[in-house]
Amino acid sequence: MLDDFMWRAALAGLGVGLAAAPLGCFVVWRRMAYFGDATAHAAILGVALALLWNISIFAGVMGVALLMALCVSTLSGKGYAMDTLLGVMAHSALAIGLVAVSFVSGVRIDLHAYLFGDILAVGKTDLIVIWSGAFLVISLMLWRWQALLTTTLNEELAYASHIDPRREQLVLTLALAIVVAVALKVVGALLIAALLIIPAATARPFSRTPEQMALIAAFIAMVATTGGLRAAYLFDTPTGPTIVSLAAVFFVISTLASQGFQRLARQR
Amino acid sequence: MFSRLSATDPALLATKQLTVRFGQQPVLDNINLALRPGRIVTLIGPNGSGKSTLVKTLIGAIKPSAGRIIRSPDLSVGYVPQRLHIDPTFPMTVRRFINLPKRHASHEIGEALEQAGAEHLLNAAMNHLSGGQLQRVLLARALLSRPTLLLLDEATQGLDHRGVAEFYQRIEQIRQRSQCAVLMVSHDLHVVMRAADHVICLNGHICCEGQPEKVASSPQYHAIFGDQTASTLAFYRHHHAHHDDEALRHAG
Question: Min CA distance, B65 vs chain A (Å)?
């Protein structure tokens, strides 16, 4: 089964969706959308450095994403104008990464694959890396779940319960770097943030608790990745963008449906 | 028999020469206070006097620049924040909320909600609660940690006079039942005067403290609250006179 590239691609998509969606819920709840963007865009710089130093792409991306995420979360504590700062960092990270890649001579690299993903080229080693990353992210989230929720609600409530919000922020930062590193191959640096945010936003109208939202988001993300893969095969479209487009369609349906329900409820 | 605290100081939580600075700016200067079981201490002071900073320092959210905070081994803090904004994207029911960060047995939850007057709210969404309902849910959540110290930061903000009176009555019942220490931050001077055992008037430093009557008649207190005091006391007296009238009418 693993010898078939479509199966490998589907398994890669499932793993990434499963890890990205619950983390994406925190990105939405804590209003960290730009934070996700900045970290994901830094991945390109990680690719350049990995090629330059001849280390694994995964390690390079993971390292740079982690540095970027730490940098952003430290600055956010210092009370800078975050919106502008994150905008600057998100786009400069991408631009500097692209410039750095052009310096890497001698290697012919498919930049397109890193920007938009190359899920059909996922190999067996990639699968192991993706599922190990997904397992690590999910374990981290399960381990810190109650503390993460408390911190997200209110930092003072967390302190009063002997939870250090800075530590929980660090857990999310680490999880984000891992997700960026494993999702790069699947949807590419430009669309990782979409895979974090769209399933979570789609799940919101149908959730009454954080757990419901995380589970529904994970389900939607997995349907979007496998469904997008199938659609890309049928219509011969680029896979990463097709996955995100399908997720966007789900979001529109979810939003319209929930508004329709509300209107019905009001009429009764 | 012997705890780490001396017999003369059986405080659950005490501060010694506590000082907090934000950069160069001193916010709290040389604060000494002790919170003891079964006693209600109220913190009053004008805006920017450091009331919230003091509460945040006591729960550990702000590090003191100098001085010490002494916590008894028996200390368990139930904290009710000034306000709680929940992002609309964050789905949260009352049941889920009060099980954070620790999960509790359902009979404990029922008991806490009843004590806080929020038993009918168990399945409500947090975003749909009114200000008063939210206050009661926050109180129930604080009670679930079986606190030996209740910390209430402007808990009555946004409540009407009746709501405020009910809230203080509830705190009084909880104090009698559990013998916990209570620290309240408040703007409601007229209610404070009745509900507290000890009043601390804060303005960066402790400018006066003592029994409510003593503080109300101290010159430092008047210097800070100025005209507000006169009207508050007038209101307080009027309020009481009003009640007396009603009592008379009912009697007659």
Answer: 18
